[in-house]
Amino acid sequence: MAAQAMKGGLAILKPLLTGDAAVSRGTIVIGTVKGDLHDIGKNLVSMMMEGAGYTVVDLGPDVDAEKFVQAAKEHNADVVALSALLTTTMPAMEATIAALKEAALPVKTIIGGAPVTQAFADQISADGYSDDAPGGVQLVRTLIGK
Q1: Cβ–Cβ < 8 Å for 111, 90
Q2: Could you tell me the residue range of the domain that residue 134 belongs to?
Q3: Cα separation of 19 and 47, whole Å?
Q4: How many angstroms separate the Cα of 135 from the Cα of each of 28, 45, 73, 146?
Q5: Which among 45, 63, 100, 143 is least buried, having the fewest CB atoms inside 10 angstroms?
Q6: Is residue 50 one of the residues assigned to a domain?
Q7: Residue among 130, 26, 13, 129 nearest 75 (CA)
């Protein structure tokens, strides 16, 4: 019930957070990795990114590595943002980053979620980590310089 209430609240807040940015600062592909259905944190990050002027392609929850790669190609993404709430789905982050590197896409990768740490980001060769949505926006600004 709490998740449903949060989603309802986010629907009301989204127009206030996103504003009316006319020019995109870049494109962010975001999703919760394969096996994980949690998306409240991802949704907050998406809205904060939109509010900061980025175009956000939200793939939703339970996204496999290939879908991240396809979306990054299709939308000419600057950043791919991966979320996980379950420790059991953290290996999917590593697999997704490996797939993006194998595809030789010029994207930055960032990760976040309750069980995720900077040490884990370093271990899986993510370009960045943030423990909250405002920090994620600042991280993207730093990584792509827009």
Answers
A1: no
A2: 25-144
A3: 10
A4: 15, 9, 25, 15
A5: 143
A6: yes
A7: 26
Residues in the chain: 146
In a domain, 85, yes or no: yes
| C-alpha–C-alpha distance, residues 11 and 108, integer Å | 28
Q: What is the pTM (predicted TM-score) of this model?
A: 0.87
User: Residue written as tokens 């600057």?
Assistant: 78
Backbone dihedral region for residue 21 (phi beyond 0: left; psi -120 to 50: alpha; all else: beta): beta
Question: Which tens digit of pLDDT belongs to each residue from 27-63?
Answer: 999 999 999 999 999 999 998 998 888 999 999 999 9
The position carrying tokens 């396809």 is: 70
Any bridge partners for residue 79, and if so which?
A: 28, 108
Domain count, the chain: 1
Angle between helices 90-102 and 65-74 (to 10 degrees): 40
Tell me if 18 is assigned to some domain.
Answer: no
Q: Is residue 7 part of a domain?
A: no
